[in-house]
Specification:
By secondary structure, the protein is an alpha/beta fold. It contains 7 helices and 17 strands. The protein has a single domain, classed as Peptidase S8/S53 domain (Rossmann fold, 3-Layer(aba) Sandwich), CATH 3.40.50.200.
Length: 365
């Protein structure tokens, strides 16, 4: 991965028209007077084993960092700001992160928490999502600053407002481990992600074949799921497509130019990339008061991939000063920058050589 990052960086430096460079922190003005209908609620593509343990069970940061060769990268994301956008949040996120870091020997950091719509009610499911996103974004890019922006509810309108807030805070990588079913007016809200110098990353969903938004937006990097089999040390035994990986052809978003030559449908193809997602190859997450219990859970789903891919983008930005856009990903996708996943299906589509509607271009390599 270290060599791949260098190759990606050098390729992108020679392909500046494909880049979304950081030129302004100013939020764009909405061309619409209203957000999506309040009744549109998002889903958290997350799965957990039905028990909580006193010690970690699931892949560790060391195993994941070695599997994708992040442990060979000489930077830690310092100077970057990763925005984590969730609903409801977690009142114990700082202490949970501290315990996660102490257990795995990772330097901790201060999580900057913001409630732009006021302090919301408690929700254990979203609190677990918050722990997953913050702990694992930090595990991959431990030097990056984390801003956690908490929406007052899981309505799409409130979450998009929180996305805008994260950008205004200076986030250059924004993780969105959530999505809603596509809706006919979704293209009217793609402007939220058309921000110069900011990379937006979203989970593709855990229901198998099917498309969700905002992963379907042409300005968002959609992350699908794989089954990542590792040995004790984190060496990869195999990586195949996960049956739950959301993916397919958008009903409302046209195929963007960067997908020309990759897929022949007239609609936008989802996902763009992939990452470990199967619960049986999940990661360890620490959380206080999960339905009255405190300890470790094993977590899977495409929710795993979004924050970790956001951290990958932070590492690339820290190394080369370049924002990783969809255009940039596809411009280098034919070379050995991704592990091409060629087996496994999500119910309708199967992984094949090159781009596919289950794992996109592939996983970090």
């Amino acid at each position: 991965m270290a060599k791949a990052l260098c190759r990606i960086g050098l390729t992108l430096l020679l392909s500046l028209p494909f880049l979304a460079l950081s030129t302004s922190l100013r939020a764009q003005t909405s061309p619409n007077l209203h957000g999506p209908p309040d009744w549109i609620q998002v889903r958290r593509p997350i799965h957990i084993l039905p028990f909580i343990t006193s010690s970690p069970y699931g892949y560790s940061p060391a195993q994941m960092r070695h599997a994708y060769a992040f442990d060979q990268i000489p930077v830690d994301g310092a100077g970057q700001t990763i925005g984590i956008v969730v609903a409801y949040g977690s009142r114990t996120i700082q202490s949970d992160l501290n315990q996660f870091c102490a257990t795995f020997g990772i330097p901790t950091t201060t999580v900057n928490v913001y409630y732009p719509q006021g302090l919301p009610r408690r929700d254990s499911g979203w609190a677990l999502e918050t722990s997953l996103d913050v702990e694992w974004a930090h595990a991959i890019a431990p030097g990056a600053r984390i801003v956690l922006v908490v929406a007052a509810s899981d309505s799409l309108s409130n979450l998009l407002n929180a996305v805008d807030y994260a950008v205004a805070l200076g986030a250059k990588q924004v993780s969105m481990s959530w999505g809603a079913s596509e809706f006919w007016s979704e293209t009217s809200y793609d402007y939220h992600f058309n921000r110069s110098g900011v990379t937006f990353v979203a989970s593709s969903g855990d229901g198998g074949a099917g498309v969700s938004w905002p992963a379907a937006s042409p300005y968002v990097v959609g992350v699908g799921g794989t089954i990542l089999s590792l040995d004790y040390y984190g060496n990869i035994i195999s990586e195949t497509a996960w049956s739950g990986s959301g993916g397919g052809i958008s009903a409302y978003e046209s195929r963007p130019a960067y997908q020309n030559g990759w897929q022949g449908a007239s609609g936008r193809g989802v996902p763009d990339v992939s990452y470990d997602g199967d619960l049986n190859t999940g990661v360890a997450v620490y959380m206080s008061n999960y339905n009255g219990y405190t300890g470790w859970l094993t977590v899977g789903g495409t929710s795993m991939g979004a924050p970790q891919w956001a951290s990958v983008c932070a590492l690339i930005k820290a190394t080369f000063g370049l924002s990783l856009s969809d255009s940039a990903l596809y411009s280098v996708g034919r070379s050995s920058y991704f592990r091409d996943i060629t087996s496994g299906c999500n119910g309708t589509y199967c992984a094949t050589a090159g781009y596919d509607y289950v794992t996109g271009l592939g996983s970090p390599y």
